[in-house]
Amino acid sequence: MQNKKHVRALIKERKQQLSKDEQVYLSEKVVQNIEQCEEFRTAHSVLCYWPLADEVLIDSLIEKYWQTKQVYLPVVAGDKLELKLFEGRDKMQVGAFGILEPSGEVYSGDVDLVIVPGVAFDLQGHRLGRGKGYYDQFLPSTKAYKLGVAFRLQIVESIPVDEWDMPVDKVVTD
């Protein structure tokens, strides 16, 4: 088993091989596969994420469904995540780490589905994040179905797991 730093470096190297056009094309495939998931189709409320430049670009999914589902986005507040309702791109502001975040009220309820980004996922659904632990702290607090999303190149055989690392229920790729 490789250490987390090594896996992060390996995935970063793989992602750098993707052109922007390939990233957009593969992201569209992932979005189509999310839309085919029963868990997504039946969810009334979904926690998504606003993508960073090197992540699966799911902003098209958010834009398509925000008026028919309750779509929440995470907002970094200190060392934890808070949820805020997405109410359109024009009601977003730049938050922590340069990520666009909704500017509305904090939502304290639960959601039906969490779409979880990750640096890498393994065949057992273990997730490797960026190392800050935001999702590892948040995921135990929700009963929602946890759907990891990644490019196929982000799937590895196994990831080093610590006791605080939370697996996802399923991983969707391109």
From TrEMBL:
MF terms (GO), sorted A to Z: 5-formyltetrahydrofolate cyclo-ligase activity; ATP binding; metal ion binding
Any GO BP: tetrahydrofolate interconversion
Enzyme class: ligase
EC code(s) of this entry: 6.3.3.2
Catalytic activity, as annotated: (6S)-5-formyl-5,6,7,8-tetrahydrofolate + ATP = (6R)-5,10-methenyltetrahydrofolate + ADP + phosphate
Binding site for ATP: K4, K5, H6, V7, R8, R127, L128, G129, R130, G131, K132, G133, Y134, Y135
Binding site for substrate: E55
Top-rank lineage group of the source organism: Bacteria
Keywords noted in UniProt: ATP-binding, Ligase, Magnesium, Metal-binding, Nucleotide-binding
Reported cofactor(s): Mg(2+)
Protein family (similarity comment): Belongs to the 5-formyltetrahydrofolate cyclo-ligase family.
Protein name per Swiss-Prot or TrEMBL: 5-formyltetrahydrofolate cyclo-ligase
